[in-house]
Amino acid sequence: MTRHTLLLISDTHIPARAPRLPRAVVEAIAEVDLVVHAGDWVDVATLDVLEHLSPRFVGVYGNNDHGELRERLPEVARFELDELRFAVIHETGAATGREKRADVAFPDVDVLIFGHSHIPWDSVSPRGMRLLNPGSPTDRRRQPRCTLMIVTVEDGVLSEVEVRTVERDFSAEVTAR
User: Which intervals hold domain Calcineurin-like phosphoesterase (predicted)?
Assistant: First the structure.
């Protein structure tokens, strides 16, 4: 049996919305095999930290990311875990019709991870693709809490999706080497 655990985050907006990654994000990295960031970093230092701390890392740039972030990150990233096909993108457009648009834009994907809205999202498209948005661990916007997602893949099947509340505790000191 193979098992993979993923941490999904997006829209960190550091330092505009938070001084650094919250303690809950840093602690979650220690629990997982793969960290995915779906864009809107704003600063390069957060990318450096996640690349340093993560056992494996996948990320994309968002609409608020420019310069070096766009040079180092793709607009769309793809990866596989036990033949389960993933894509990561920052923006997917309006919530209305999202699943149908995603089916057209990503016909060869089983799981689409996205950000931008700061709203946790877990839905299934008409053809069966899972769409996941972890919300934001630093900027809740109109949501009651900041969030992240922990996703489990077992034997090529997305078996569990957990939305975790993130407290605004920035006491974890983490830096890139």
Answer: 6-155
CA angle 7, 74, 135 (to 5 degrees): 35
Point out which residues pair with 165 in neighbouring strands: 147
110-119 pLDDT per residue, tens: 999 999 999 9
Q: Could you give the residue ranges of the DSSP H alpha helices within the chain? A: 23-29, 44-53, 68-72, 98-105
User: What residues pair up with 112 in beta bridges, in sequence order?
Assistant: 87, 131
Q: What is the rounded CA–CA span in Å between residue 128 and residue 33?
A: 25
| Closest listed residue to residue 129, CA positions, set 162, 96, 169, 85 | 85
Residue 150, SS3 per DSSP: strand
What does DSSP assign to residue 14?
T
Residue range 23-82, pLDDT digits in tens? 999 999 999 999 999 999 999 999 999 999 999 999 999 999 999 999 999 999 999 999
Going by C-alpha positions, the residue among 44, 80, 82, 41 that lies closest to residue 64 is: 41
Q: Which domains does the chain have, with CATH numbers?
A: 10-166 (3.60.21.10)
Residue appearing with tokens 């090529």: 156
Rounded to whole angstroms, how far apart are CA atoms 110 and 124?
A: 10
